[in-house]
Amino acid sequence: MELTRDEEAALRGEHGSSMETAYRILVATGEAADAERLVKIEWAHLSGVNYNTIGDAGERFLAEFSRTARVKVRTSLNPMGYDADSVSGYGLDEDFIRGQESIRRSYERMGVMPTFSCIPYEILKLPGAGTQVSFAESNAAIYANSVAGLRTNKESAFSALASAITGQEPLLVAQKGQRA
Question: In what residue span(s) does the Phosphomevalonate dehydratase large subunit-like domain sit (predicted)?
Fold first, then answer.
């Protein structure tokens, strides 16, 4: 995959450890999918929020990563494992609440908007048709590509987070014919 000098420097850790980690994720994803290069994005939508799905390892990673990582683009967030405004009525385990709240704080520390929705296109103003975004939520990626006229890969939780941190995502083979 072709990288610019600045991207190569970030991959070598010259822009800090969180940026190095983000570029390592994007390069690994891009190489696995035969991407030719990275492209700029204007918006990222993240999954990997629910403590039930990422567990202690995910919570620890985010707590550490969020100490230095900051998003470069508008970044929205999938739902958590409960509605924080009415948590008392659920009878949830205290360890679950602790882990879920740590995840929430980590994302907010990075500058992620606490939208807690899998339909961010219903909450936030959409950019113009043809705009590159990075969406991890399946329905949001489908909506972006097929209804809103945006362009996105169907990202994983890690690759969408890396895209939010770097402001880029891999240009995948399926998208090559769509670019000017």
Answer: 1-171
